[in-house]
Write a structure and sequence with these properties.
Elements lengths: L2 E8 L3 E9 L4 E10 L3 E3 L2 E3 L2 H17 L5 E5 L5 E4 L20 H6 L4 H8 L8 H11 L1 H6 L2 E4 H10 L4 E2 H4 L13 H7 L9 E2 L3 E5 L2 H6 L7 E4 L4 H7 L9 E5 L2 E8 L6 H6 L2 E4 L5 E8 L2 H12 L6 H10 L20 H11 L8 H27 L5 E5 L6 H11 L2 E4 L4 H13 L6 H11 L3 E3 L5 H14 L1
Parallel strand pairs: 1-6, 6-12, 9-10, 13-17, 17-18
Antiparallel strand pairs: 1-2, 2-3, 4-5, 7-8, 11-12, 13-14, 14-16, 15-16, 18-19
């Protein structure tokens, strides 16, 4: 019997409502609603427009109902961000965007109290100023009045689940991005106490696949005809959902979940929290069925998105396909950037920042948009190689291929450069890996799919992939050595 479930997949710039229908063999996807996700800058603070996003959730439910209905709902989003509720369950203020400057300087402040080695040993999470830990540290020390009024903290997907059901839960995979958990996957009470965060704000933790509640009567009444569907806490972090949908039957694999961020890593049965991992600033985040996503956050397609945004501001609107074509025309290996340089984290004037970094490091300064794009593309591929070499060394393995999933699979040029740089085959697809993983976890929870290996086999049966074989060339080796000298 066919099962139908509804997945909401929120990225940093857009969101989708996708119906997943499973006939026992294959999963079919139907996008029923798509919408933009536009942060709002107000009085110097960058917010997520969470009420608008919840309006879009309701529109997605309405359209999915009209398209045939569904048995359950699952929501995945980006990590680290959260909303605060008061004792009456009211939202205290719009959630703040992780790119807001309130965490500027917070890393140094906190690390002066808890040294990096000790902090990494407590959490196993890479130190990034966007992490929830540093956001809450800021509130505890600079907006204590707000934190004093908070009764509960809910990460973005948990907050939307609460709006749907009235249930306050913390799903494990999204919580694991926060740098607030211990190595056993529970709230790190010692760290919370030392940082000055009130213990009461943390909700009970649930594992992905937990049925947390039913669509509320209020929403069903508002959306006339909507089903009394279950809301399931899926792998609520979008990368965790994408990893569920990696189309492989191998127990050991390397993935790149390629979107605004590139999350590159492997799936392990237990975290690795040694000194080498700390020095490489690699993270141990939660995955489905208590697995560990041992991965590196890399500034991904954000660099290309911001390049296009600057061109639009300057009156030179170009499509992503046109930007790729300009990159293809430019000479190879002229200059590189570190995609993770701090200046790229904040929005605005990306082209100028690329040129500035090239000049500051004594390299050729890109002279046109094609050279800027070539620099970005090749630098991403070089960064992927650096992380790939680390993963092979850390695991003592030689991985024969890299699985690229997510929106970046549409960028054939980047996939080919990744294969060339890393010297292994790249398998690209599915594009909708995040929604697929979300749907798969719902189907497992409902009993339609047996387990994670069975879900990945269903993904393989359902969606084609594209392969990119590496092309040899001396330029890559010489270019990589220059990249390492500059940025590694």
């Amino acid at each position: 019997m066919q099962k139908s479930v509804l997945a909401f997949d929120f990225g940093a710039s857009s969101g989708r409502a996708i119906l997943g229908r499973f006939d026992g063999e294959k999963i079919e996807l139907q996008e029923v609603h798509r919408f933009s996700n536009d942060p709002v800058l107000l009085n110097g603070c960058l917010y997520w427009d969470i009420l608008r996003l919840f309006h879009e959730v309701k529109q997605g439910i309405l359209k999915a109902t009209q398209a045939g209905g569904f048995e359950s709902i699952g929501i995945d989003t980006w990590g680290v961000d959260f909303g605060l509720l008061d004792q009456n369950g009211r939202l205290l203020e719009n959630p703040v965007h992780y790119r807001d400057d309130r965490t500027d300087g917070m890393v140094d402040e906190l690390l002066s109290q808890i040294p990096p080695k000790e902090l990494y040993g407590m959490t196993g999470i890479q130190i990034m100023q966007i992490n929830t830990l540093f956001q809450l540290y800021y509130l505890a020390h600079y907006r204590k009045d707000l934190l004093d009024r908070a009764d509960r903290m809910l990460f973005t997907p948990d907050l939307l689940n609460y709006f749907l059901t009235g249930e306050k839960k913390a799903e494990y995979t999204i919580a694991s991005t926060s740098q607030l958990l211990d190595k056993n996957g529970g709230w790190n009470r010692e760290l919370v106490r030392r940082v000055g965060i009130p213990d009461r704000i943390f909700c009970d933790m649930v594992q992905p696949g937990t049925r947390i509640g039913w669509l509320s009567d209020e929403i069903i009444s508002e959306l006339d005809g909507a089903p009394k569907a279950e809301v399931i806490a899926v792998t609520s972090h979008d990368t965790a959902s994408a990893v569920v949908a990696v189309p492989t039957t191998e127990p050991d694999f390397v993935f790149i979940s390629c979107g605004t961020w590139s999350l590159m890593g492997t799936e392990l049965q237990a975290p690795i929290m040694d000194e080498k991992s700390m020095e490489f600033n690699i993270t141990n985040e939660g995955g489905y069925n208590h697995t560990t996503r041992y991965l590196k956050n890399i500034m991904g397609l954000w660099l290309i998105q911001e390049t296009r945004r600057q061109l639009i501001w300057e009156g030179r609107e170009m499509s992503y396909a046109q930007l790729e074509q300009e990159a293809l025309k430019a000479p190879a290996f002229q200059c590189f950037i570190d995609p993770d340089s701090p200046e790229f984290l904040k929005p605005g004037r990306l082209i100028d920042k690329v040129k500035g970094l090239c000049q500051a490091t004594g390299q050729h300064v890109p002279q046109n948009i094609g050279e800027v794009m070539r620099c970005i593309y090749e630098s991403l591929a070089m960064k992927y190689r650096n992380v790939f070499e680390y993963l092979c060394d850390a695991g003592g393995k030689r991985y024969p291929q890299i699985n690229v999933v997510g929106g970046g699979t549409k960028d054939g040029f980047l996939c080919q450069l990744t294969a060339d740089a890393c010297g292994v085959k790249v398998v690209a697809g599915p594009i909708e890996a995040t929604a697929m993983g979300n749907i798969a976890v719902q189907l497992i929870s409902l009993g339609a799919i047996a387990d994670l290996p069975a879900a990945r086999k269903a993904v393989i049966r359902s969606f084609p992939v594209k392969e990119f074989q590496p092309h040899s060339g001396a330029g890559w080796e010489e270019g990589y050595q220059r990249f390492k000298q500059l940025f590694v």
